[in-house]
DNA sequence: CCTGCAATTTGCGATAGCGCAAAACCGGCC
DNA sequence: GGCCGGTTTTGCGCTATCGCAAATTGCAGG
């Protein structure tokens, strides 16, 4: 198993307040695995045998209903943890994780968690913070779904993706991983058709440029305005 | 300040793995306060100076948009914590908490949290579990809002309330605190009008009995069936 | 017991967005 | 270079649900 360089991860919020040699000890329990694009890392309902830290790439976490519909819970960016089922007291994964790009992941066995947090209490505190932040985001998302129309929700979703995983271009920001209309629909609670229509509209106004699984925000500021427009703040 | 009896709270998940005398030490830092029905405990955006544990009564946590619309984040039942802004790294409350019934609450100063989790790491671990559970619930709610119609969402919401705060009756289950059509609308992402129409329909089928801020599920099992009905699983 | 307010009910027109279907498109692979 | 499959676009009718308005009801206080 390849050694993981502590310097690559030492600065992550997860390890705040953890001494360098402690970090070494923690990393010694992990292994590093590469997942090619479009491979599953774990499946919803499977036994939660591991938890993960994304080093490179991008991972989509999605939840599936009994009837087969899916929603995207979130996109995981490098440096973030995922699959923390055990930390929250679950024995099975509540969602499916799939690499949307070639990705590299650190993997710990679930069984290591209790020992790790006992030896390094900051881990629990730090994890609590990130889980808490995710809870906030979920509430925000619920608020948006309850009070905004589809166009605003899509605008917000794209702006968040741009902030989290945007690549600055000469002119605009590009979402730095493959993402389809369907994915955006599953993030915002709508259909790929409606997403397509709205992006087409934006494209003809020069707000975005997009294609197959690719989106560039050409006028981020104007999209912010769009995102904040209320149902009645009269359009042209 | 009145002494808090440890026996009242010792069994709570929050204090799992905490020794009795440690619990005593923890409680010594808290004070107990009574909030009459319909009084605010804290306001969204206010400085998070305290965190809370509900002893008696019921508390509604709600988020308000800039434009004044509200959603109900959750109802807090006795034994649950709320207002944990600091545990998740926020300095202001992300929602407003209001007592919907006469309520009694334990209050710790936010400043005590870092010290408490350092001395009693189980607190952090336990809190992580409950916050994680709430995250799951939020995802479930997002899934429902994305994939189900209003009637199913209302059914699920009422069933959850019944499970959390239901009072068993000779025949049926009563939601054990005052809750309006508007509240249910704000939990499910719809309007009070639509909630009213749907409850009226259920009432005429004998599924529920309801009135001013009061709901009794007369046929919980049939409501479960309703909740699981897919858009096309033909009605009668 | 009466009064007033807040909660609830209900009708009705308006519409955002869905669902289905078909066509166009785009890239990667052989 | 051409073919195939997944993605995207777009048209069109439909409907669940909203939004507004008005009537009704039930509780709480005086």
Q: What does this protein structure show overall?
A:
Two copies of one chain form a homodimer. Chain A has 236 residues and is of the alpha+beta class. Chain A folds into two domains: 6-138, Jelly Rolls, CATH 2.60.120.10; 148-228, Orthogonal Bundle (Arc Repressor Mutant, subunit A), CATH 1.10.10. In chain A, 40% of the residues lie in helices and 24% in strands. The first copy, chain A, has eight helices and twelve strands. In chain A, a hairpin with a 2-residue loop joins strand 11 (208-211) and strand 12. In chain A, helix 3 (112-119) crosses helix 4 (121-147) and helix 5 crosses helix 6. The model of chain A has no long low-confidence stretch (mean pLDDT 94). At the A-B interface, helix 4 of A face helix 4 of B. The first copy, chain A, binds a DNA duplex (30 and 30 nucleotides) through helix 7. Chains A, B: This is CRP-like cAMP-binding protein. Chains A, B: Residues 148-221 form the HTH crp-type domain. Chains A, B: It comes from Bradyrhizobium huanghuaihaiense. Chains A, B: Residues 14-117 form the Cyclic nucleotide-binding domain.
């Amino acid at each position: 198993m390849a050694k993981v360089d502590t310097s690559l991860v030492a600065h992550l919020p997860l390890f705040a307040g953890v001494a360098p040699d402690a970090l070494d000890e923690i990393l010694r329990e992990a292994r590093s695995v590469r997942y090619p694009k479009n491979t599953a890392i774990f499946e919803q309902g499977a036994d939660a045998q591991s938890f993960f830290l994304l080093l490179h790439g991008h991972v989509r976490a999605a939840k599936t209903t009994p009837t087969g519909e899916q929603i995207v819970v979130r996109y995981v960016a490098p440096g973030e943890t995922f699959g923390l089922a055990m930390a929250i007291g679950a024995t099975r994964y509540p969602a499916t994780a799939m690499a949307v790009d070639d990705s590299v992941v650190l993997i710990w066995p679930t069984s290591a968690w209790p020992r790790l947090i006992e030896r390094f209490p900051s881990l629990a505190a730090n994890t609590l913070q990130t889980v808490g932040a995710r809870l906030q985001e979920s509430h925000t998302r619920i608020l948006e779904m309850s009070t905004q129309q589809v166009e605003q929700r899509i605008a917000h979703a794209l702006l968040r993706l741009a902030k989290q995983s945007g690549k600055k271009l000469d002119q605009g920001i590009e979402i730095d991983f493959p993402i389809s209309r369907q994915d955006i629909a599953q993030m915002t609670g709508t259909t790929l058709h409606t997403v397509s229509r709205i992006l087409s509209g934006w494209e003809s106004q020069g707000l975005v440029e997009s294609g197959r699984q690719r989106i560039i925000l050409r006028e981020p500021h104007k999209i912010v305005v769009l995102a904040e427009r209320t149902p009645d703040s009269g359009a042209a």
